[in-house]
Each structure stands twice: as structure tokens, then as C-alpha cells.
Amino acid sequence: MTSRQFLAALALLLFVSPLAARPAQKPNHDLKTVRGLVLDKSENGVSTAVVFLKNVRSNQVRSYIADREGNYRFSGLDPNADYELYAEKDGAKSQVRNISSFDARTDIVLNLKIADKKKS
Prior knowledge:
Layout: H1 3-21, E1 32-39, E2 50-55, E3 61-65, E4 71-77, E5 83-89, E6 92-93, E7 97-99, E8 107-109, E9 112-113
Parallel strand pairs: 1-8, 1-9
Antiparallel strand pairs: 1-4, 2-3, 2-5, 5-6, 5-7
């Protein structure tokens, strides 16, 4: 090995070794959770209301049936997606709530109030 080849190998080793010593970079993505209560007009929990969560980008819809106290929960959500959230029970529906990808919170609490069913 010539001195020129030795210096080239040494320079390469000095350049590459700090890169190899770096720990793997963890993506800066914390998955989101959206949770809350489904309430009636008297602020009582609404059991068995169906809560819908729509990913606006993919149009994928997930649903959750509220428990006895009206609790719902969606976890493992993409922090880079926007969502629409609403609840329904016996033909009555809550207002649609929007969850923005710009909202940096990883645990979002949104209560949904179901309005009385409109009479036709």
C-alpha cells in the first residue's frame, strides 16, 4: 500500500466512523389519541352512541361505540393527517369537529354533544 492509498483510506475512515457512531434518528412522529364523551343536551353521557372519525386525506372512516358513560377513544392516529369527528344516536347527530394536523397535542379531548333529532 502506498502512502497515498494509506492517506486516502485513513481519510475515508475518519469521515465514515463518526457517521456510523451516530444513533439511529427516531422519526419525530408521536401518534395521536382523540378521546372524550358523547353528551346529550342535558350534559349526560350517551351510551351506545356511534362515533365516527374520518381521515380527510384517505377518506378512511373508523367508528367506535361509546361505553355506558358515553366515553369514546381513537388511538394510533397519524399526526400528519386531518380528521373529522362526529357522533350519532337514534338519528340525532353532533356537530362535526375538525382535528388539524397542525395541532401538536398527542392527547386530544373533544366532547361531542348530540342535538335533538330534527322533526320532519
